[in-house]
Amino acid sequence: MAGFVAHLDAYGILPIAFAGFSIYTGRINYMQEIERKFLTVIPDISKLMRITQVGESRISQTYLIAPNGGERRVRSRQFPSGITVYFYTEKYPVQGSNGLVREEKEREISSEEYEVLLKAADPQFSTISKTRYTFDFNNFTFELDVYTFEENYATLEVELPSEDTHVELPDFIQVVKEVTSDKRYKNKALAKALAFPE
User: Fold this and answer.
1) In this predicted model, which residue has the larger pLDDT, 66 or 96?
2) Helix (H/G/I), strand (E/B), else coil: 7
3) How many helices (H) and strands (E) does the chain have?
4) Does residue 126 have a pLDDT over 90?
5) Residue 108 in contact with residue 87, Cβ under 8 Å?
6) Are 191 and 127 a contacting pair, CB within 8 Å?
7) Residue 102 in contact with residue 32, Cβ under 8 Å?
8) Cβ of 7: how many Cβ atoms within 10 Å?
9) How far is CA 133 from the centre of its chain?
10) Which residue has the higher pLDDT, 26 or 93?
11) 137 forms bridges with which residues in the sheet?
């Protein structure tokens, strides 16, 4: 928590953050993220929902100024019920993992804190808007992200318990290629380009 407060203080928003509400609205979760990412063709969503049970949410993701080569972001996630939740996340790459493993700290925040943190948005990056479709296949949870800036392609992510875990991709999704180690397909890179690499 002290580190988070230091970040706010470094960007000159600490007085605002503590004016009127508590900055500590959620428990901090520390985790190691092991994730594979794939470029796919956008499927027929109505057909996808007939094949399997699908969760849907709309995500708005903004990157914040981050020291020491790390990644800081805030995210709003709205569900069809109308409920919106907000998160603050920090991510750091694990050396030698070729993009597969990252250290992550994340906590749920209030809508007020979300608005405060947006004041530290990094001007080099645009806010990413996407619709996320979540479904289970062969004991793994997959996340299909369809971006507002792209008409033909999407990304498919799956989190794994270990780096050497074998995962079978869903046969009802047309996978173009794996992009786990391709930095051009990281969300932060997409927020800068607002386009998939050609």
Assistant:
1) 66
2) helix
3) 5, 9
4) yes
5) yes
6) yes
7) yes
8) 21
9) 13
10) 93
11) 140
Q: What pLDDT digit, counting tens, does each position of 47-60 carry?
A: 999 999 999 999 99
Q: What DSSP element (H or E) covers 173?
A: none
Stretch (H or E) spanning 115 = helix 111-117
Domain 2-193: assigned CATH number? 2.40.320.10
**Residues marked as catalytic:** 63
Task: Provide long-range contacts, Cβ within 8 A and 24+ apart, for 49-52.
Answer: 51/172, 52/135, 52/136, 52/137, 52/170, 52/172
- What is the DSSP code (8-state) at residue 6? H
DSSP-assigned beta bridge partners for residue 128: 61
144 touches 40 (CB < 8 A): yes
- C-alpha–C-alpha distance, residues 30 and 77, integer Å: 20
Structure tokens at 44: 């027929």
Smallest Cα–Cα separation from 191: which of 72, 56, 88? 72
Q: Which two tokens stand for residue 113?
A: 């804190």
A 10 A CB-CB count for 120 gives 19
Q: What is the dihedral of CA 41, 127, 19, 11, to 10 degrees?
A: 120
CB atoms within 10 A of CB 149: 13
Length of the chain (residues): 198
| Residue among 159, 142, 167 nearest 40 (CA) | 142
Q: 47: which 2 tokens?
A: 């057909």
Asked if residue 35 lies in contact with residue 179, where contact means CB atoms within 8 angstroms, the answer is no
